[in-house]
Amino acid sequence: MCTTCGCGQADLTLDGHPHTHGHEARPGRRRVSLEQSLLARNDALAAQNRQWLAQRGILALNLVSSPGSGKTTLLEQTILRLQGRIPMSVIEGDQQTSQDADRIRAAGAPALQINTGKGCHLDAHMVGHALEQLDPPAGSVVMIENVGNLVCPAAFDLGEAAKVVILSVTEGEDKPLKYPDLFAAAKLMLLNKVDLLPHVRFDVARCLGYAHRIRPDLEVLPLSAQTGQGFEAWLAWLQAARALAPRA
Amino acid sequence: MHELSLMEGMIEDLEAEAGKRGFARIHRIRLEVGRLSGVEVEALRFAFGPATEGSLAEGAELEILEIPATGTCQDCGAAVEIAARFEPCPACGEGFVIISGGTELRLKDLDVE
Ligand SMILES: Nc1nc2c(ncn2[C@@H]2O[C@H](COP(=O)(O)OP(=O)(O)O)[C@@H](O)[C@H]2O)c(=O)[nH]1
Ligand SMILES: [Mg+2]
Ligand SMILES: [Zn+2]
Ligand SMILES: [Zn+2]
Ligand SMILES: [Zn+2]
Ligand SMILES: [Zn+2]
């Protein structure tokens, strides 16, 4: 390969002279070395968010899943159960509509809707502005419902304390293998809609085996956001995470 | 999936770099993209045109250096190349591979004037 430009034509000569690319050795042209991650800007803003949250002792969780796995239902039920015990607010990310934020407000928590339009994930810049506007109280919990998508939310740090991946039993047990990046990035997996297990073909043990192949220390809690089954364990997890939330 | 927003963000960053480092045009951009970066090279190329339109990199050449996914097997210790994150070690057939390369998504350098 041509080491100058990697064009794969090292042997190419023109009238016996080595080839050039029109952009080499021209006066005024030079090479600038950068060696920086394309995610560097997002990561820097995420670090700012993380510090902002730590200064206020706020626990922020980034909820990631495919559309329809039950994120908003989970949040509604969590808010209802923690009413008067833990102040909680929600940042909702959807491409369109403010329906989810409306549902959260109806459940009794402050909510702010981010519409990403074509954007398929939330990024740290959006969340930074949302936090400022939402202005959650010190010591509270902020839930960030990411855009339903199992791919890119894995790459975009928002400044959260942890990512929580929600997988519902109607989605198929091989999701962890198909979307390993997201499961590798999560601290906790909520296996939702377990009320439907009698009606669907879903091998829980196999699913967990796949998930732990991707991330051996992934915590897993099975629950149903509809029936409330498994909620004690989830609320206890939340309380523990809140107690451990980073403080600056 | 988010290749267009990545390219748009990169161009915004480069517009800022241009002031700091004193260049006005970008003729070529070199990226390093790992196989496990979650980004599709073809989608990056596709997004590059629209993202650079009207910017200081309009018409620039995009060169992508693809980086294989490599790691070390936890069981047999072999240094191996893998195709996906969860894949068992190709040397011993079962070990878990600790990944050491292939997650890069890096802006390497630019040719500017
Ligand atoms: N059977 C059952 N349905 C659920 C459960 N959780 C959510 N759903 C339903 O799944 C659909 C999508 O839920 P939603 O919370 O909007 O998902 P989101 O897109 O992840 O926010 C709705 O019809 C919910 O009623 C559950 O635990 N069991
Ligand atoms: Mg929702
Ligand atoms: Zn060449
Ligand atoms: Zn995206
Ligand atoms: Zn801003
Ligand atoms: Zn091995």
Explain the overall architecture:
The complex is a heterodimer of chains A (248) and B (113). Chain A is of the alpha/beta class. Chain A starts with 12 loop residues before the first strand and ends in a 5-residue tail after the last helix. The longest helix of chain A has 16 residues, at 40-55. In chain A, the strands form two sheets. In chain A, strands 6-5-7-4-8-9-10 form a seven-stranded parallel beta sheet, sandwiched between helices. Chain A has a two-stranded antiparallel ribbon with strand order 1-2. In chain A, helix 1 packs parallel to helix 4 (124-134) and helix 2 runs parallel beside helix 3. Helices cover 33% and strands 21% of the residues of chain A. Residues 1-6 of chain A have low confidence and may be disordered. Chain A has a single domain, classed as Rossmann fold, CATH 3.40.50.300. Chain A is built from eight helices and ten strands. In chain A, strand 5, helix 3 and strand 6 (111-115) form a beta-alpha-beta unit. In chain B, strand 1, helix 2 (41-52) and strand 2 form a beta-alpha-beta unit. Helices cover 27% and strands 34% of the residues of chain B. In chain B, the strands form two sheets. Chain B has a three-stranded mixed beta sheet, covered by helices on one side. Chain B has a single domain (3-112), classed as hypothetical protein PF0899 fold. The two termini of chain B are 32 Å apart. Chain B is built from two helices and six strands. Chain B is α+β, with helices and mostly antiparallel strands and 113 residues long. At the A-B interface, strand 3, helix 1, helix 6 and helix 7 of A face helix 1, strand 1, strand 2 and strand 6 of B. Strand 3 of chain A pairs antiparallel with strand 6 of chain B, so a sheet runs across the interface. One zinc ion binds next to loops of chain A.
